[in-house]
Amino acid sequence: AQSVTQLDSQVPVFEEAPVELRCNYSSSVSVYLFWYVQYPNQGLQLLLKYLSGSTLVKGINGFEAEFNKSQTSFHLRKPSVHISDTAEYFCAVSGQSGGSNYKLTFGKGTLLTVNP
Amino acid sequence: NAGVMQNPRHLVRRRGQEARLRCSPMKGHSHVYWYRQLPEEGLKFMVYLQKENIIDESGMPKERFSAEFPKEGPSILRIQQVVRGDSAAYFCASSPLTSSYEQYFGPGTRLTVT
Questions:
Q1: Record: contact B56-A102, CB cut-off 8 A
Q2: Quick one: average pLDDT of B3-15?
Q3: How far apart are CA B89 and CA B78, in angstroms?
Q4: Touching check for A111 and chain B: CB below 8 Å?
Q5: In which element (H, E) is residue B67 found?
Q6: Would an 8 Å CB–CB cutoff place B95 in contact with chain A?
Q7: pLDDT (tens digit, 9 = 90+) per residue, B36-55?
Q8: What residues of B are in contact with residue A110 (Cβ under 8 Å)?
Q9: Whole-Å CA distances, B24 to B5, B32, B36
């Protein structure tokens, strides 16, 4: 079984500032890692994913995340945010084996608010 | 390529009524997943279906909830005799055959039980 902890429930930042949204996970098996974004009253959109290979993953809208196996973290970063990045961000994990990789486990989410 | 479609987007039911939530997967996707999002919580896995088969329903409440994905037509999540605690957003996701971890989500159905 896996679990995900998003350490900050809310992150307020000013426009054009950098941001980091933190995610730690717990798992007894190798994992796939994901970040999703949810705009108000909409579904989840996949921002980026780590499956294997390079630990630095680049996603859409200028976001990137770094997988750190020793610290069991997958923090999301953006060097300069826009007002339009205001949304809820969810970190998710699944096991890699075929018998469980469909079952995404989500964190509780981080509300990113970008202020002018 | 149309995305995952869910309807209705909003559903209001009185306690004791039935709720039926529909999900049409992306074209070419044969796997469907249902998740529930309670207020201020992350999404929780409910059930995984393929056409005419329930693969994993370990996240479904034991009573009143059922799901199906028939050979023809959308997947249906059915909640009988709804209670206030069923009020939540219900999201459907779909994935291609070869990568079940790569899930694409619909806009969700927001169920309110009065």
A1: yes
A2: 96
A3: 14
A4: no
A5: strand B65-68
A6: yes
A7: 998 878 899 999 999 999 99
A8: none
A9: 5, 9, 17
